[in-house]
Amino acid sequence: MSYKFPEGFLWGGATAANQFEGGFHEGNKGLNIADVLPGGKERISILKDPGFDFEIDPEKFYPNHEGIDFYNRYKEDIALFAEMGFKVFRTSIAWTRIFPNGDELEPNEEGLAFYDRVFDELLKHGIEPVVTISHYEMPVHLVKEYGGWRNREVVTFFERYVKAIFNRYKDKVKYWMTFNEINSGLMMPIMGLGFSVHKEEDKYGPTFQAFHHQFVASAKAVKLCHEMMPEAKIGCMIIYAPVYSYDSNPENVMHAMEESNIFNYFCADVHVRGEYPGYIKRYFKENNIQLDIEDGDLELLKEGTVDYIGFSYYMSRTEKKDKSDVEGISGNIMEGIKNPFLEASDWGWEIDPIGLRISLNNLYSRYQVPLFIVENGLGAYDKVEEDGSINDDYRIDYLRKHIEQMGEAIEDGVELMGYTSWGCIDLVSASTGEMSKRYGFIYVDRNDDGSGTLERSRKKSFYWYKDVIDSNGEKL
């Protein structure tokens, strides 16, 4: 069947500065977290294990340093996005381009000017920027000198950064999000919260304190946005993965609900409702977590609630209270139980299009605010044929099935603003630093070892997605 998407639906693609810009030291940019994460499978253990030192090892390869060189090729890439018909393009601002160390008093003009050029180029092609303020690229100086987001002082530095970019781009950017996949800090605080736990400490105390500081910072950003840009919209951004019970045993159903509350809803509850939910207060009590909440914080959270929820959707997860007798799986930094009804990607991420419809209905029925799918896609190995073509029918099939479920959710009454497919141009994987894990409609000649010409070429999915946008989702 064909689906009717709302008029003005925001079709486009999504990226992150640290995964595709490159320009490692160009324009006075400072060192950020992604710059010190080596490529390859060891990145996963660095992100999850305690004790990372945030230093560059000259013996290792750091793919984020060059990314796909969008820093120097942005005009070429934006022209390709325009050819596909993008209405919006989601990217992020690299904090260290604006404040190289993070704690300076004045912003770096070269960094500000770079994003002026990018946003002007997008607008020239009729593409609205959707900008994530902080996307896994915290200044390393703030990590080493202050301890990342566990330190309250970082809120002040973030507010200064936000004021600088809002003031500069208030006439160019209408859609903002505060922290990318904020709830990922539960699994990998290094990228989202800017610290590695010490071996001897329980990670949850500092993690939830860091979350509180980010909630305060987000609320301040929301208030600033509403004051400085009354016409703009500012949202939060979470990973959403519906949690299924392994069976109908009430113990497992309850366990799945508890897992979903903390992972899927905790951060969104604070962002959208402006208060800490009852289940998390119980969790804090049972785990002896004491938050340092300053006077005025709780009022600020109430005043700084977001306009919409941006979220990434890649997979669902299945849970069982006692996992000793079932096969476990891992995907998208999450652990779970193998779901016998689902196939998985080359990287073991279970593929569940109907789960997207479930997610949209869950979120909308809970919050009644507009939703924006700002990441969704298939990481896969692509083969370049002898004639240069890339026949990624598997990607088209994946995206078609997910967009169909978006159409179903809209029929269900869900208010969906738009859809930006992740990695619309091939980029460096966040979790493994690989280029071979490709998501894009646009192929970039770049290999895991850094070799390749960086030349761009259109995949079969490029033309398919162009038709999807041209028909506003009717031609899938």
TrEMBL record:
EC number of this enzyme: 3.2.1.86
UniProt KW keywords: Glycosidase, Hydrolase
SUPFAM superfamilies, A to Z: (Trans)glycosidases
Catalytic residues as annotated in Swiss-Prot or TrEMBL: E375 (nucleophile)
A Gene Ontology cellular-component term: cytosol
Gene Ontology MF terms in the entry: 6-phospho-beta-glucosidase activity
Any one biological process term the GO annotation gives: carbohydrate catabolic process
InterPro entries membership: GH, GH_1_N_CS, Glyco_hydro_1, Glyco_hydro_1_AS
Family listed: Belongs to the glycosyl hydrolase 1 family.
PANTHER family xref list: 6-PHOSPHO-BETA-GLUCOSIDASE ASCB-RELATED (PTHR10353:SF122), GLYCOSYL HYDROLASE (PTHR10353)
NCBIfam families: PRK09589.1 (NF007154), PRK09593.1 (NF007158), PRK09852.1 (NF007356)
Name of the featured protein: 6-phospho-beta-glucosidase
Source organism per UniProt: Gracilibacillus halotolerans
